UniProtKB/TrEMBL annotation:
Keywords: Transferase. It is an enzyme of class 2 (transferase). The keyword Iron-sulfur does not apply. GO terms for molecular function: corrinoid adenosyltransferase activity. It comes from the Bacteria. The keyword Signal does not apply. It comes from Virgibacillus byunsanensis. This is Cob(I)yrinic acid a,c-diamide adenosyltransferase. The gene is cobO. InterPro entries: CblAdoTrfase_CobA, P-loop_NTPase.
Length: 183
């Protein structure tokens, strides 16, 4: 017997903090949602499409669309390049959420993008528009926002805020990103 999925109120979940595991938590939630028949899309605000990511390879096999909208770490490109990437990424994110096509949308590292202070971003990624998107998204859409330094205004309107803390990290011993762990 096929169970009909009951339409539930979509939630907004925020994964933030300085510890490792925010995107990993969102990917775990994605796998759970796909298992329940949800249509899921992940948009990554900082990661570049020029690299290959293990989670993207796996999620493609599950039928999950994952798209990198960024150009990499903020210290590897010019402010103008990052502003242009964000200028293109934000309308795509709004359109994706508001389309109602997806049951779950992950805006990975959106918090990081909103926290950029090395160059102005409010004209290409306005905090007020992000808040409006959360408040006015289609009723059934679950929205996940990840990244360090979540703005208090975002945390205030979210339904769940999980802070991933770091107690110890191998980076401190000089171990760089590890394939299968970060990549």
């Amino acid at each position: 017997m096929v169970q009909k999925r009951r339409k539930q109120q979509g939630l907004t979940l925020v994964y933030t903090g300085d510890g490792k595991g925010k995107t990993t938590a969102a990917i775990g939630l994605t796998v759970r949602a796909v298992g329940q028949g949800f249509n899921v899309k992940i948009l990554q605000f900082i990661k570049s499409p020029r690299r290959s990511y293990g989670e993207q390879i796996t999620l493609e096999k599950l039928g999950v669309e994952m798209e990198q909208l960024g150009i990499g770490f903020t210290w590897t490109k010019t402010p103008e390049e990052h502003r242009e990437a964000l200028r293109k990424a934000w309308p795509k994110a709004k359109e994706t959420v508001m389309s109602g096509e997806y049951d779950l949308v992950v805006l990975d590292e959106l918090n990081n993008a909103l926290a950029i202070d090395k160059f102005p971003i409010d004209d290409v990624l306005p905090l007020e528009e992000v808040k409006d998107l959360i408040k006015n998204k289609p009723e059934h859409v679950h929205l996940v926002i990840t990244g360090r330094n979540a703005k208090q205004e975002i945390k205030d309107i979210a339904d769940l805020v999980s802070v991933v803390d770091v107690e110890k990290h191998y980076y401190d011993r000089g171990i760089p990103a590890v394939k299968g762990i970060e990549l």
